[in-house]
Write a structure and sequence with these properties.
Length: about 230
């Protein structure tokens, strides 16, 4: 059995250990998950959840070398541009490290993918993945980054890279930089000035003139409403 067959088996064997970013663990994993804690604390986190987070944050999954590889991968997925920083700049590597501890059923597949990077680099260029130049790096990644174009022998690698891509995107879009990139406003107060006059005219309608003086104006939004003795708005 050659090295390619070994890597193929490693990928295939790891597929049964978890699902790709679906939010659900296999049944074997579900059986070992703690029961949902009851009650809560300010901010919606239970004491049990807080303790669990502290435990997970104290553990590490990736080696230093693996983190270097992962940094290259996540920045390929979410590179810096004129509108936003790269994935590494917003902590994507640490996020994925945390998720590997939180979702141990993904660990075998993730580590297998990291091994495959060196295997494929040695096969093609006679050196380790971290020694490749940019063009060589992209030649390796292109083998698994395009599911519709990948050959059958790279099926396991495609699934692994899909997981990396999903984690990288989740990390990026869970940050303030990601929200700004999407122009997500959240619970930001806004101002409603009614239907624009040009739209009203287009549909043959207009605001009743007798009420124009009492409609809320932008400059009066901070003023507390007052009424006279007869109940009329002042």
């Amino acid at each position: 059995m050659n090295r390619r067959e070994n890597l193929k088996l490693l990928f295939a064997g790891s597929l049964g250990t978890g699902l790709l970013m679906t939010g659900c663990a296999p049944e074997a994993e579900k059986a070992n998950l703690p029961e949902v804690a009851t009650g809560g604390t300010i901010g919606g986190r239970t004491e049990e959840e807080k303790l669990r987070d502290q435990k997970l944050l104290a553990e590490k999954f990736f080696t230093d070398e693996e983190k270097e590889k992962l940094a290259i991968l996540v920045d390929i997925v979410m590179p810096a541009d004129e509108e936003s920083p790269a994935a590494t700049e917003v902590g994507a590597v640490d996020f994925i490290d945390f998720m590997m501890i939180d979702q141990p059923y993904n660990q075998t597949r993730m580590r297998g993918g990291m091994m495959w990077l060196d295997f494929e680099s040695n096969e093609k260029f006679g050196k380790q993945f971290l020694e490749l130049n940019q063009d060589e790096t992209m030649e390796i990644i292109d083998l698994v980054a395009w599911p519709d174009k990948a050959t059958p022998e790279y099926e396991g690698g495609v699934k692994w890279f899909n997981m990396v891509r999903n984690f990288a995107a989740t990390a990026f879009f869970s940050t303030e930089a990601g929200w700004k990139y999407m122009d997500y406003k959240g619970n930001t107060p806004n101002a409603w000035d009614g239907v624009p006059d040009e739209v009203m005219q287009k549909h043959g309608m207009k605001l009743p003139e007798q009420y124009l003086d009492v409609y809320l104006k932008q400059e009066d939004r901070g003023r507390v409403a007052e009424w006279d003795d007869d109940g009329n708005l002042i």
